[in-house]
Write a structure and sequence with these properties.
The complex is a heterodimer of chains A (270) and B (229). Chain A is an alpha/beta fold. Chain A contains 12 helices and 5 strands. The two termini of chain A are 34 Å apart. Chain B is mostly helical. Chain B has 3 domains: 4-42; 53-128, no CATH class; 129-229, Tetratricopeptide repeat domain (Serine Threonine Protein Phosphatase 5, Tetratricopeptide repeat). In chain B, helix 4 runs parallel beside helix 6 and helix 7 packs antiparallel against helix 8 (215-225). The termini of chain B are close together. Classes of the chains: A alpha/beta (270), B mainly alpha (229). Chains A and B meet through helix 11 and helix 12 of A and helix 1, helix 5 and helix 7 of B. The structure holds adenosine-5'-diphosphate and magnesium ion. Adenosine-5'-diphosphate binds next to helix 3 and helix 11 of chain A.
Amino acid sequence: MKSRYAVAKEVFVDSVDTMDYIELESSYKAFKKLEQSIEKPLKMILLFGSPGTGKSMLLGRLYEKLKDKKEIHYFDTPAISQKEFYHKIFLVLTGKELPPNTEVNFSALVNYCKKLRGKREIVILLDEAQMYGPELMEKIRLLSDSRAIKFIVSLHKTEDEDLIAKAHFQSRIWEVVELKNASVEDLATYIHKKLLKRNLFEIANSLKPKHIQMIHKFTRGNFRECNKMMYAIFEVSEYYDLHEPNKINYTNMSRKIIEMAAIKLGYIHV
Amino acid sequence: MYDIRELEEAWLRYRKKRRRPFLIAAALFFAFIVLYVLEIKTGYLTRVFQRKGDTVVIVDTAIERNETFGTNKISLERSGRVSQIVEVRKDESTKPIAISKINKNDTMVLAPSSVDGSAKNIVIELKDTNDPQTLHDLEKRFKLSHDTDDSLFLAKSYYKRQQYEKAAYWAYQTNLINENIEEAWLVFVKSKYKLGRHAEAIKVLKAYIDKSGSIRAKVLLEKMQKHLF
Ligand SMILES: Nc1ncnc2c1ncn2[C@@H]1O[C@H](COP(=O)(O)OP(=O)(O)O)[C@@H](O)[C@H]1O
Ligand SMILES: [Mg+2]
């Protein structure tokens, strides 16, 4: 027999499917701000936040919401090579695949963009931009200077801010939208809604405010950390459910299980 | 599924540790109450404090004797060590050492430059190979050289140091220059996975398998899909 906790566990496997988007106070605010920024005459918009704060989810949502109204494209993972990046831009601009055995000439691409100015307004959502490195970022800036393409660039704070040549960036970006870790309230909404979407009412109810508080303390309200923690909590629960059901309370989650998950993930050192 | 027993034991240890301050506080509180009651009923504490003067004198002399004994021992130990150090120095000075090469893996090859050439090369493995300074210097060098050996080395070093953001970054920089280096793909994917971005890692890994048909990549994919990585 399959434990209901096995289902609950799978709910928290990392995914960036926009079908799973949940409206939270923080994500709603950031969404509105991005939507408004797109309408302003800006060349670049920066979506900023630590890893796991929901940037990709938000970009995906923005894409879904605007794709019928605007010429918008979502580059979810960085291109494999510089060459491939140009191919992707070429495809966006011309709607055609590059003929075989040809290469994109970058300055020709920029010139092409300049000609499009005033005729088309293209929005490109560029996720994981901290990966691109200074050289490619400079190319992206040149493209956006043509004003035919507007980039929404998502990147996260790294310990070494130097990696993305941030100073160089700041002078050119006029709008910064920042996503922070979730508040306790947002985290509670997130966890409960995710479970309720799969009809896991009893499990959702077994997580009381004090438990959410604990989870928030360990994960600092980071969604990805929270996903990992929920997965571990339900994995331990699943074991007890199947092997030692006397050790589990189905209506009230035990602190012990949460602490065991925290030990497993290294939040607590014993 | 990980070992629940082990986890339970760790949790018991954790609970014991967490409770310790409370237990100590409770014990102290209890002792205080006992003394307080004794004092009220019998005046025990007042009597103990009155006698305290005598005790102090005895303790003082004991400490004095102890100290002189202690210093003797220390000076003996010191002289012993010094002679040892001198011996070692003598030994080294007879064989002057020249650093012939420091390669990227930070294995220092030290060759004693003896006249007769009879001495063999000594290889010393430095324990902290990829220390932050070396990595920083390599990052600088890469900016000029764009050498994939450098960026791949950085990626692998950061991965070993569990700095997965940086590992992914450098693996990706390697890829930007040459997209056919398997190591770079795998370090990238593994770092993403370690960062908890399972979906993304698996997606990229599948793309690489389509492109290359690599067996190693397939094995890794299987592990990741079963949450065994
Ligand atoms: N608004 C949201 N609705 C539903 N899930 C979310 C939301 N924000 C974040 N998440 C969850 O958190 C995880 C990390 O979010 P992600 O967008 O990948 O973060 P980032 O791109 O900032 O690193 C996702 O896998 C998703 O499960
Ligand atoms: Mg992301």
